[in-house]
Each structure stands twice: as C-alpha cells, then as structure tokens.
C-alpha cells in the first residue's frame, strides 16, 4: 500500500499569497497525480490552516480532492477541530479515526492541547487508542501531528506539553508489537526517532517558506512531501518527493 503524506501547509487566505503557500499546495497535489504508481491514500498531518478561517480549510479540501484519492486529515496546533470537522467530516470532540487498508490498520490521532502549540493526549483519547490497539490484528501505522518522541536533530527536541502525557502515550503503544511506525508533522524539518521498538519520524513542512533544516539541492525551490510504502510483512519505506 502506498500513502502520499503531506503536512504543515499553513494556508493563509485572504492574505496576499506572498509566501506562495497555495501554489506550493497545488504543486504537491499535481505531483502526486503524476506518480506512476497511484497512491492509495492522501494524508495531511496537520497545520492545514495558519489563521484558522473556514475558507482555508475549503481551499485545502478542494485541492486535496483534486488528487482523486481517499483523504485523511488530523489537526495541528494551528487548526480548529470544529472547522476541520466542517470541511473534512472529522469526528468530534476529538478528530481520531481508524482505517483498515491494504492489510494495515491506520490510526489517525488528535494531539491538540487547547491553549498551546504543544502536544497532549488525555485519558479520553488514550482510552480510545487502547481500544483500537487491542482490536488490531494487522500491522499498525500511526499518524499524529505532534511527535511524542525526542527529536535529536531539533533545537526543540520535546514537543509535548508535559512528560506525563507523552509517557502515557509511549507506554501504551510500546505494549503492542504490531505498531510499526509513527508519522508526524509539526517540526517543519525531517527528523527520526523511536518509541521503544517503533520507528518515529517527522516530515518537513510542504510550504517552502515554513521549511526548516537542510536538504539536497534537488529540493531547492520545490515543495517536499513523502511517499510511504507499507509492505505486507509489516515493514515500510519512505521516499521524499520534490514537487515541481
Ligand atoms: Fe506547523
């Protein structure tokens, strides 16, 4: 199974698009459409909007629909659960859902903490996740905005509101051998980490002006997204894509 993973578009409307973020978004979708092997799913891991206006979500929904793929989204710290629900029909009070695809269980988690940019994971969300993991018989891939793991190549390596919710989350997922990967946004740079036996990674922002870190020359001036190939044996590979 192949997943196109995009993140941190930070769409701003009606500000003049000086930063070119709408254009970056459209370039990425165009590039996904041109992939020789058609992805099975398009995932946005949050910070869809920058200013939290309904029109920003409407733009993102329209652009993502043009890929002609099933779509899954989760909120980032810049997003509103309510506006996300209006545009993408995500659940409330927490935008969490599970999908069975290609022999994998895909879990989309809501790590918002109201009132801060950092991640959180409360008892209600933990209980939902525990129920999902207890039922999962397939390999599991988790998508969430905030990484719960330490990012050693980030000047701000820990991005949860407190150690306690991160530990609670990490301890839970570590108890399930079939959890294989945690795919995040938020950091605006590519990082790798781990939660026990589980690989963790963050993908850089798709909007060029929000990108941090250093990249090969081939990515100069080109928005980045990634393809995640989930294999039948529970392994996976990721490949960065230069859109444009
Ligand atoms: Fe962001």
Summarize the structure in words:
By secondary structure, the protein is α/β, with parallel strands linked by helices. The chain has a single domain, classed as Purple Acid Phosphatase, chain A, domain 2. 24% of the residues lie in helices and 23% in strands. The chain has helices at residues 21-33, 54-65, 81-88, 123-135, 163-174; strands at 2-6, 41-44, 71-73, 97-101, 104-108, 140-143, 179-184, 191-195, 198-202, 224-230, 236-242. A six-stranded mixed beta sheet has the order 4-5-6-7-9-8. A five-stranded mixed beta sheet has the order 3-2-1-10-11, with helices on one face. Strand 10 and strand 11 (236-242) form a beta hairpin. Helix 1 (21-33) packs parallel to helix 2 and helix 2 runs parallel beside helix 3 (81-88). The radius of gyration is 17 Å and the shape is globular. It starts with a strand and ends with a strand. The mean pLDDT is 96. Residues 8, 10, 47, 76, 186, 188 line the site of fe (ii) ion.
Looking at this protein, list some descriptive labels.
244 residues, alpha/beta, Purple Acid Phosphatase, chain A, domain 2, 6-stranded mixed β-sheet, 11 strands, globular, binds fe (ii) ion
Order of helices and strands: EHEHEHEEHEHEEEEE
CATH class: Alpha Beta
The quaternary state of the protein chains shown equals: single chain
Distance between the ends:
24 Å
Rg for CA atoms: 17 Å
Low-confidence stretches: none
Class computed from helices, strands and strand pairing = alpha/beta
Mean pLDDT: 96
Ligand inventory reads: fe (ii) ion
In DSSP terms, counting alpha (H) and pi (I) runs of 4 or more, how many helices? 5
And the CATH topology? Answer: Purple Acid Phosphatase, chain A, domain 2
Largest sheet: 6 strands, mixed
- The proportion of strand residues reads 15-25%
What global shape is seen?
A: globular
Q: Output the CATH homologous superfamily.
A: Metallo-dependent phosphatases
Query: How many discrete structural domains?
Result: 1
* Spatial order of the strands forming the largest sheet: 4-5-6-7-9-8
Question: How many strand segments?
Answer: 11
| Fraction of residues in H or I helices | 10-25%
| CATH A-level architecture | 4-Layer Sandwich
């Amino acid at each position: 199974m192949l997943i196109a993973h995009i993140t941190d578009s930070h769409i701003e409307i009606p500000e003049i698009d000086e930063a070119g973020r709408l254009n970056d978004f459209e370039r990425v979708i165009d590039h996904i459409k041109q992939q020789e092997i058609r992805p099975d799913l398009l995932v946005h891991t949050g910070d869809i909007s920058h200013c939290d206006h309904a029109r920003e979500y409407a733009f993102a929904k329209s652009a993502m629909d043009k890929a002609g793929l099933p779509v899954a989204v989760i909120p980032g710290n810049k997003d509103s659960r309510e506006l996300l629900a209006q545009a993408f029909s995500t659940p409330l009070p927490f935008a969490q859902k599970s999908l069975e695809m290609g022999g994998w269980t895909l879990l989309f988690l809501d790590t918002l903490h109201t009132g801060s940019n950092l991640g959180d994971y409360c008892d209600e969300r933990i209980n939902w996740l525990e129920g999902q993991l207890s039922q999962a018989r397939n390999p599991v891939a988790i998508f969430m905005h905030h990484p719960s793991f330490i990012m050693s190549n980030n000047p701000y390596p820990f991005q949860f509101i407190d150690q306690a919710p991160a530990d609670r989350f990490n301890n839970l997922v570590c108890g399930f051998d079939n959890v294989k990967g945690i795919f995040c946004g938020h950091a605006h740079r590519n990082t790798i980490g781990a939660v026990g036996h589980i690989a963790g990674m963050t993908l850089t922002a798709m909007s060029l002006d929000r990108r941090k870190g250093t990249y090969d020359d081939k990515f100069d001036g080109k928005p980045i997204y990634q393809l995640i190939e989930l294999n039948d044996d529970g392994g996976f590979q990721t490949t960065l894509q230069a859109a444009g």
